[in-house]
Amino acid sequence: MNEEKRTEINELGEFGLIRHLTKKAKLSHQSSKLGIGDDAAVIQFKEGKQTVVTTDLLIEGIHFDLMYVPLRHLGYKSIIVNISDVYAMNATPTHVTVSIAISNRFSLEALDEMYEGIYLACDKYGVDLIGGDTCSSLRGLVISVTAVGEGNAEDIVRRGGAKEGDLLCVSGDLGGAYVGLQLLEREKSIFLENPEVKPDLENQTYIVGRQLKPEARKDVVELFSSLKILPTSMIDISDGLSSEILHLCNSSGMGCSLYEEKIPIADETYNMARKFNLDPVTCALSGGEDYELLFTISPGEYEKLENHPDISVIGHMTEKERGVILITKGNNIHPLVAQGWNSFRHN
Ligand code: ADP
Ligand code: MG
Q1: Which residues lie with the beta carbon below 6 Å from any ligand 1 atom?
Q2: CA gyration radius for the chain?
Q3: Is the pTM of this model over 0.70?
Q4: What's the average model confidence in pLDDT over 298-315?
């Protein structure tokens, strides 16, 4: 018998798999300005304006657990995770399509609830729901959203433009969504053991909200526009700070020094991480799902953002040979490794 070679997907990991599957993809249209490898693709149909396109899948049991994720929040989040990728290109989201596969476990009322969340996010961020697809699934719920956005050609920001000496900045605070997930998972297991016990989430609205109802940083992109700042590179934080910094560095051909003491972590996140015996900094570095924007600016732009309460400068770009490093509070140096959130680890 002819023995066929079989390679396990886990040997490649998510990004290795994407690289493998997409290496034959060619851009043959003049309108294809940027293909695979960024938060969104860029196409240009008319002079001066560019269109960005991005898509994400959410799978029950991999990305969400309906034991503690209300459908309304899930609908909301499915829009947010996509338009966050549009903002990461410094563009404005305009349209979404939503495709769903549903098993017979879901009633009309349940789907109505999910769509309430979808419409709420569309309203809040000014995007039109323009299409999608609906079909049945054997098991569980699948949601696929595609988002389209627009920006001036000269304003579109990619992952690959960071220069040596640029400042590495992040919006908001990190690690909250991951710690929120740990809390929800703990309450779930307590509930499974003893359904009589009421979940104790009341005082943890911040971190639970970070996990269940994230927002996209529209305000940060608007801030860039009003302050006339054009970041040299940008990415949104879906997989954890480490993984995203490595993406910016790889795409830009740069190294980076990240300062542990500068990483913004909310008190609620810090305290709950400690209760779980987790290192809050590790939660920020590897947790993911914060949907904050990570970007670089040239040092000349520093004073425009210096006093902004919601933007932190956390490091600077260096020549590639210096590597991508974390400088700890105790002045130790560690190479940054990506243990980013990886849906493959669930398989
Ligand atoms: P993000 O975390 O910003 O959503 P991903 O890590 O999912 O980005 O994807 C990285 C890049 O790979 C993107 O340009 C995305 O469009 C592309 N990509 C991912 N999966 C596939 C696939 N199966 N076929 C083609 N391109 C893909
Ligand atoms: Mg992204």
Answers
A1: 18, 21-22, 36-39, 56, 85, 238
A2: 21
A3: yes
A4: 96
